[in-house]
Amino acid sequence: MSSMPLILLVEDNHDIAAMIGDHLEHSGYDVDFAADGITGLHLAVTEDFDAIILDLMLPGMDGVDICKKLRTDAGKSTPILMLTARDTLEDKVAGLDAGADDYLVKPFELEELDARLRAMLRRSGGEVAAELMRVGDLEVNTGTLEVRREGQLINLTPIGLKLLISLMKASPKVLSRRALEREVWGEIAPDSDALRSHLYNLRKAIDKPFDEAMLHNVPGMGYRLSKPDGR
């Protein structure tokens, strides 16, 4: 069996798919292809990929719907890099809210695609030593990647999990926006909308179903995770 990372590329433009596929294969990846949304979703659900590169506009089913079905219906946490020709805030946030981990706006440099793909694979590769982290009634098992609050299992995207672990390590101290961006994306962070969207989704997952909030925005400073009593 190949030890090279296996990437699913879902792209309906043949020329773009060939260009990306050739580049990734020369960079040491195994690549599987799908040219429409329905085929892409089927492969993503039935096969185990290390990462998915997903075009936003696809025949059959668009990238946002694929993300939602993978995250919500299939419970898949495979890292997803969204490709979009739309450079609007609404489209970026829609992709991130649906469960994409990162995005690239077309046209892009293949070197940046490489960098973002490597960063996603590092984040999902379990670099944190296995341990049980707790803040109040919220806990993360970094070995199994399970997140629970009040004993209830919570599903997070890979970036949501990375943000939560960073905030738990610092708790109850405040982490600046830049510090959080650096923890997740390194020195190639996307614009601020990406962090804001991921933190919004994280808050929905760990706070909204429960009586008291633990993730707090500290105006002008950053974000803090703390027990309901503030400690």
Number of helices: 8
Task: Flag low-confidence runs.
Answer: none
Helices and strands, in order, run as EHEHEHEHEHEEEEHEHHEE
The helix content, as a percent range, equals 40-55%
| Largest sheet features | 5 strands, parallel
Beta-strand segment tally? 12
**What is the CATH level 1 assignment of the largest domain?**
Alpha Beta
What's the overall average pLDDT, rounded? Answer: 85
CATH topology of the largest domain: Rossmann fold
The CATH fourth-level homologous superfamily of the largest domain? Response regulator
Specify the overall morphology.
globular
Can you walk me through this structure?
With 231 residues, this protein is α/β, with parallel strands linked by helices. The chain folds into two domains: 6-123, Rossmann fold (3-Layer(aba) Sandwich); 132-225, Orthogonal Bundle (Arc Repressor Mutant, subunit A). The chain has eight helices and twelve strands. The radius of gyration is 18 Å and the shape is globular. The chain starts with 5 loop residues before the first strand and ends in a 6-residue tail after the last strand. The model has no long low-confidence stretch (mean pLDDT 85).
Compact description:
The protein has helices at 14-26, 37-46, 63-73, 89-98, 110-123, 158-170, 177-185, 192-206, and strands at 6-10, 30-34, 51-55, 80-84, 102-105, 132-135, 138-141, 146-149, 152-154, 174-175, 215-218, 222-225.
Structural topology:
Layout: E1 6-10, H1 14-26, E2 30-34, H2 37-46, E3 51-55, H3 63-73, E4 80-84, H4 89-98, E5 102-105, H5 110-123, E6 132-135, E7 138-141, E8 146-149, E9 152-154, H6 158-170, E10 174-175, H7 177-185, H8 192-206, E11 215-218, E12 222-225
Parallel strand pairs: 1-2, 1-3, 3-4, 4-5
Antiparallel strand pairs: 6-7, 7-8, 8-9, 10-12, 11-12
